[in-house]
Amino acid sequence: MVLIFRKDATFFSVYTWTFLTTHGRTMLFIARHPDARLRDIAESLGVTERTVTTAVRDLVDAGYLTKHRQGRRNRYEVQRDVPLHDAPGGGRTVADLIRALGDLEPSPDADGA
């Protein structure tokens, strides 16, 4: 984040870029907070709810997330065994990405290797 100061001593922030895409950040957030609402995800990531909605829809369409209806809300679940389609060298799964980038415990069915 870059802080830009104005002449009147106020400032605003400008995000130049992020290491992970909105899609990746959204998926990691859902992995950590499976009950989060899209509004909560957007606020936490500093993007609009519409941006998160698009990312979630893309992730569901690609099979990385599944959507479950619970009452009036949608709940999203990360599909950890799905292979990453752009992983260098291939063979990497969503679970591998989550373990590499987060402080999450491996899923109960992980082989621990």
Write the layout of secondary structure elements.
Elements: E1 2-5, E2 11-14, H1 22-32, H2 38-45, H3 49-61, E3 65-70, E4 73-78, H4 94-101
Antiparallel strand pairs: 1-2, 3-4
Short summary:
The chain is of the alpha+beta class and 113 residues long. The protein has 4 helices and 4 strands. Strands 1-2 form a two-stranded antiparallel ribbon. The protein has a two-stranded antiparallel ribbon with strand order 3-4.
Tags for this model:
single chain; 113 residues; two-stranded antiparallel sheet; alpha+beta; two-stranded antiparallel ribbon; 4 helices; globular; 4 strands
Q: Beta-strand level of the residues, as a percent range? A: 15-25%
Distance between the termini: 37 Å
Largest sheet: 2 strands, antiparallel
Instruction: Pick out the low-confidence regions.
Output: 104-108
- How many helices? The count is 4
Overall pLDDT: 81
**Structural class of the secondary structure composition?**
alpha+beta
Shape: globular
- Total strands: the figure is 4
**SSE topology string:** EEHHHEEH
Main sheet: which strands, in order across?
Answer: 1-2
Helix content: 25-40%
Radius of gyration: 17 Å
